[in-house]
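Q: I'm writing up a methods section and want to include an example of the input and output format. Could you take the sequence below and give the corresponding predicted structure tokens, formatted cleanly so I can copy it straight into the document?
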Amino acid sequence: MLAATAACGSPGARPATAPPRPTAAIVDEPGTVIAPTPQRPGDAARGWAVLTASNYVGCGVPRGLFDRVAGATPAWMHLPGRTGAGADLPYPLNAVTGPGGRPLVTPNCLACHAAFLRGQLVIGLGDARANFTGAASGLGLGLAGLLITDPDDRAAWDKLVGRFAQIAPAVRTTTVGANPADHIAAALFAHRDARTLAWSDEPRMAMPAAPIPIDVPAWWLLKKKAAMFHTGAGRGDQARIMMTASVLCVDDVPTARAIDAGFPDVRAYLTSLTPPRYPAPIDPALAARGATVFTQRCQRCHGSYGPAGRYRTRIVSVSEVGTDPAATERVGQFAAPFVAWFNTSFYGEVAQLVPGDGYVAPPLDGVWATAPYFHNGSVPTLAAVLAPALRAPRFTIERDQDDYDLDLVGWRSAPVAADDPRVASPWVWDTARPGHGNQGHAFAATLPAAARRALLEYLKTL
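A: Here is the clean output for your methods example:
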């Protein structure tokens, strides 16, 4: 099972001509270093089973209703390596047994943490096409609910639909590809008692403001990072932070604690993942020159690579990196009331939210595959990360399978004029929207074009 999953994360073999990676010691590292903390051990194989076959969100759609409404799932949407009752479900859903032995279909973490890239499902890759700009149709939900006659199925359906209805107004984004996970967590915290996890239909705290865009980090980076989230806010036991997925429908501490017992295994699975390899030829001489540029310009924040590679989780201030500051301004689950809720709840027993005052410079393993770039996904290609002049103030979001440009390394896009009627479309990224800025990270801007090209070639090898 794990072998099949590993193949999902490796669509191409590393070219034999790839140059050696620099292994020089990191010097003059800026910012605040976050020290790693001990993590509970786990078993990756068990973690795969928990992730793809268990009910850690606590509610779901009756399986009979799902099959009647959704019909057969095409094979390309199946999760490679999954067997059992969920083998024929779409990869972001699990088949589980609910209360009273009723079969349910529940969401899983792959809804945000898996994506198709060049025709291959890559486990652990953030979904750049996720669309949170609209709410589920009330009419559609109502019509589907009319098909339910069993009272246990009705209870399961009402719980799931009710939870989504409660939080939907607070988590709707303006742009396709923007992920509101931090606001989803806050909206769910707002309805819960921190001590008991009991749900209240009326919020106990003010609901979060409209979400700003967040790009989903790749799972395979977790093995190197001492803290989670773009600002390094997730400290301590990472498994406990991960299982906040349970905050959707798990309404008491004993149930949460039982689910938590499996999440060290989930973390072990996540840290077993390896990034996909760049699938096209690499110019070894050009990449070798780029390795030297990387050592001089990038290594101090992003670490070094290869057998002797070294990475430290380091927060770089907004004043230094220059990127859009909105995500550092205590928004979503990182606003003070929600931080306090988490830190005093069951989830805060062994983990804490400690928002930083800047952004973590992430490891760059598999960076070629992780477009769009920056914490908010505001830069569609790695070439534009290195050359700010290539960044448009407004651009189309082209993210079909054929729109991934291996030369520029990222998603193709086209500039959109300020007076173009498409500006209001969720399929256009407008940097004037709150949190959508694409400025900053100009560390390679003064390099000669040839040096930037060499650096880009080297980054393909990571």
